[in-house]
Write a structure and sequence with these properties.
- The termini are far apart.
- With 665 residues, this protein is mainly α.
- The chain contains 27 helices and 2 strands.
- The relative contact order is 0.11.
- A hairpin with a 2-residue loop joins strand 1 and strand 2.
- Helix 4 packs parallel to helix 9 and helix 17 runs parallel beside helix 22.
- The protein has a two-stranded antiparallel sheet.
- It is 74% helix and 1% strand.
Length: 665
């Protein structure tokens, strides 16, 4: 009997079944939330506390009326808005992976709020949601412009969204480092805190969601035409471009409203439409409604479960939603049948005719960059060359050696991962290896603050190697397809970002200290540590030199490698373990740095260094060159303030790949 009550009959239409599951989920979440409210203030006294004079209420009654009850309503409104936003984006682009986070909307909106807080604070008083909407719209326009010429394929959309989100995140981190006091309140927005102190967010979100729901209902029939090909839509007298613009505009409006009032709540806008689709909602109207109900249920359930976690203070729900939901969402998304980007007919770059001369030129450029970083600087009296011996040897030289070691380590790890995967998108950053290592080190720093370098290296390498082992297992099924690799990287990056936001938004005093390390700073690099890791990078290069034969043969397949006497399993395992160790060492030195492990092997291959040994040497020199320039430019750009080398490398690498994506679109 109980199973009949809990299981919806299969004879119901698919749309009714989907709405039934969504309603059950929302009812369960609402029941738990109301039970928690009843624990704070008895149910029998709710009506009297609502109508009573606030001056006569006790503290629990005031908390119930002006904090917890508005929080419940905000969960319902924000979750419903995100679910509807994700469903509209997916319908408008015909892509089940479209969401505010994958299109860079949330990153652009948050960056716009930060800029408004610093330079135009009166705009926030007049309507911060419109400022957030403008930033989100600009970010989405850039992503869609990059992906449009590839017909909004999942691969192009994810890659463009990843690049734009990374650039927005780097700029936001830079602002937070320079204006930590002025942007202190933005930490809770970054983490998606749902703590309330009144009904103002409800008064902002409720009308916005009501208007958007009415417009979405009126547009159901026209937007349903987007399921057809563009030619079919035009034959019915409609413009597919205008319909997409309407869907995207409405989705951006909803997402910006949530970001301005609540902050960044990741994965709800992606998971809710996915649950609606998997539960049977095929037609657009029921899918929009089911996605809204699922979104409200997911956020309300997550906020109710947050209260049972043993955390100090008010835990940011948005970060915990991403932290707990990313693995499940990654597993669900990988089950979807997604079209890959069409293979390009263009061949790879031709091999350079004189690689030795090219490598010599790269070595010369690296030496020049190192000399500039050591000798040329800005001071209170302007530009100066050289300086006192103590300044050069105790301050500049350790940072220069740290940047050099990090560039070498990440470039070598990037070459290993790319050649083993046979995919130019496979790098420690894009695959989430750096994020996995950073996540392990963050947790270790919070749980065991006195951990030594040896334990840090062990935990970081274990986290990175564990992910690499999972990727190796997945490769047998998905063959390291670019789309699946990006999905894995998106999942791990979401987990790492959630952990970072959780630390920053929880009020932990160690948060700002971690922010400097997480931005890829060389500030705290000491000479002995830099020398040890530089020695590790050189030793790894010497070890990899005879193993380049493996890097040549393993991409050819198991049978070919075995025919030449290379054991595929053991060789892959050893190389992946080495890549994990190199990534961990670089992360331990200067924090998680984006794009160096992707940029250096890519540039080496584009320059014609195609053989394994040539690419290894070229990528190592290019990684060193990029990091040396990033550290030097970071000291000069905003003098007397300094930009961490990791942020500069992210900006340089992100802009480079944006240009590449635009040129190839």
């Amino acid at each position: 009997m109980s199973s009949q009550i809990l299981t919806l009959p299969n004879r119901l239409p698919l749309a009714s079944r989907a709405l039934g599951w969504a309603g059950l989920a929302l009812l369960a979440a609402l029941t738990l939330a109301l039970w928690q409210l009843q624990q704070l203030w008895p149910l029998a006294q709710w009506a009297s506390a609502w109508h009573a004079d606030p001056a006569q209420l006790s503290w629990p009654a005031l908390e119930w009326r002006y904090a917890q009850l508005p929080r419940l309503v905000v969960c319902l409104l924000a979750g419903g808005a995100l679910g509807l936003s994700g469903a509209l984006l997916q319908q408008g682009l015909g892509n089940p992976l479209a969401a505010p986070e994958t299109l860079g909307i949330q990153g652009g909106a948050l960056l716009a709020l930060a800029l408004g807080t610093l330079y135009q604070p009166h705009w926030l008083q007049q309507g911060g949601q419109w400022l957030a909407m403008g930033g989100g719209a600009l970010a989405a326009a850039l992503v869609l412009g990059l992906a449009a010429r590839r017909h909004y394929s999942p691969l192009a959309l994810l890659l463009a969204g990843l690049l734009v989100s990374l650039i927005c995140g780097a700029l936001l981190t830079l602002l937070m480092l320079r204006h930590d006091i002025a942007l202190l309140a933005l930490h809770s927005h970054l983490a998606g805190s749902l703590a309330q102190d009144g009904w103002q967010p409800v008064q902002q979100l409720a009308p916005a969601l009501a208007v958007a729901a009415v417009l979405a209902a009126l547009l159901v029939r026209p937007l349903g035409l987007l399921a057809m090909a563009d030619q079919g839509v035009r034959s019915l007298g409609a413009s597919p471009g205008r319909l997409r613009l309407l869907a995207l505009g409405l989705a951006i409006f909803l997402s910006a409203q949530v970001v301005s009032q609540v902050g960044v709540v990741s994965l709800v806008a992606l998971a809710a439409p996915l649950l609606a689709r998997l539960s049977g909602a095929r037609r657009l109207g029921p899918r929009l409604l089911a996605a809204s109900l699922f979104g409200a249920a997911l956020l309300l359930l997550a906020d109710a479960l947050v209260r049972y976690l043993p955390l100090q203070g008010d835990a940011p729900t948005g970060s915990l939603v991403a932290l707990l939901g990313a693995p499940l969402l990654g597993a669900l998304v990988l089950r979807l049948s997604l079209p890959e980007a069409p293979a390009s007919a263009a061949t790879g770059p031709a091999r350079h005719g004189k690689p030795a001369r090219l490598l010599g030129g790269l070595l010369g450029l690296s030496l020049v960059a190192g000399l500039l970083g050591l000798m040329l600087a800005r001071g209170p009296s302007g530009w100066q060359w050289g300086g006192e011996a103590d300044l050069l040897l105790e301050w500049r030289l350790p940072r220069l050696l740290g940047a050099l070691a990090a560039g070498l380590l990440l470039a070598q790890a990037g070459v290993i991962v790319q050649r083993l995967a046979g995919n130019p998108l496979a790098s420690p950053e894009v695959l989430g290896i750096s994020s996995s290592c950073g996540l392990g080190l963050i947790l270790l720093g919070l749980l065991v603050p006195e951990a030594g370098r040896g334990l840090q290296l062990l935990v970081g390498a274990g986290s990175a190697f564990g992910l690499l082992a999972v990727l190796l297992w997945w490769s047998r099924r998905y063959h390291f397809s670019p789309l699946k690799l990006l999905l894995c990287g998106m999942t791990l990056t979401t987990l790492y970002g959630a952990a970072q936001s959780l630390v920053l938004g929880s009020g932990d005093p160690r948060g700002l200290q971690l922010l400097s390390w997480m931005s890829g700073s060389t500030y705290y690099v000491t000479g002995p540590l830099a020398l040890r890791l530089l020695a590790l990078a050189l030793a790894a290069g010497l070890l990899l030199w005879p193993l380049c034969r493996w890097l040549e043969l393993l991409p050819l397949g198991t049978a070919s490698a075995s025919a030449f006497g290379v054991g595929p399993q053991r060789s892959r395992l050893g190389l992946l373990a080495l890549a994990a160790l190199l990534t961990t060492a670089a992360t331990l030195l200067v924090g998680p740095i984006s794009f160096v492990g992707l940029l250096a092997p890519h540039l080496a291959r584009q320059l014609g260094l195609c053989r394994a040994r040539e690419q290894l040497l070229g990528a190592s020199l290019l990684g060193a060159l990029v990091m040396l320039l990033a550290d030097w430019l970071g000291r000069l750009w905003l003098f007397p303030d300094q930009v961490p080398a990791g942020l500069m490398a992210s900006l340089l690498g992100g802009l480079y790949f944006l240009c590449c994506l635009w040129r190839r679109a």
